[in-house]
Amino acid sequence: MSGHCDRCENPATVHLTEIKGGQKTERHLCEKCAAGLHVPSASKELAKLLKSFEPALALATQGPAVATRACPECGMTYAEFRQHGRFGCAKDYEVFGEQIEKLLKRIHGSARYAGKKPGGGTVHAPATRDDILRVRGLLDEAVKAENYEEAARLRDQIRRLTEEPGDGGSGAGA
After folding, report:
1. What are the CA-CA distances from residue 150 to residues 137, 159, 173 (Å)?
2. Are 138 and 147 in contact (CB under 8 A)?
3. pLDDT (tens digit per residue) in 86-133
4. What is the pTM of this model?
5. 3-state DSSP: the chain helix, strand, coil percent, rounded to 5?
6. What are the residue ranges spanned by the domains of the chain?
7. What does the pLDDT look like over 64-75, one tens digit per residue?
8. β-pair partners for 15
9. Count of H helices and E strands in the chain?
10. For residue 91, with 0-12 CB atoms within 10 Å meaning exposed, 13-18 middle and 19 or more buried, which class applies?
């Protein structure tokens, strides 16, 4: 096995064996030359392989009670959902709600969507009760500190958080 890159004098860290028409060809490259030739990185390929095992690992760590719980309407289990990637009926969202939320948080970092929407524009995640309570606490602190500009800004933020979607922002400018 060669210690140096076939293209330059750097140490060879990528070793390729190619067999075409019964002929075996070995190439020894450094990381830089391998990247220039678009040779797939072993670490990236290994990472992809390990990622493919994540669904089974997640299911195994959730325990048999979750995996075998079945929807009373369609009979689908959470294990079947994880295997096929889709539910059997609308009731499944209620039956597996806790697991769905954990799954969404793991995949997207949050169970609420905030981002772009088809046709342009942005979707903002609806405020939760905790969001509103947190901002109200900040408002109380601002009032006590007599920071009225901050208090007005927080008041307006609470109005926006408590508006119903499609409200048209009727409370924000008042």
Report:
1. 12, 14, 16
2. no
3. 888 988 888 888 888 887 777 777 666 666 777 777 666 666 777 788
4. 0.33
5. 50, 15, 40
6. 1-52, 54-111, 123-174
7. 556 677 889 999
8. 28
9. 9, 4
10. middle
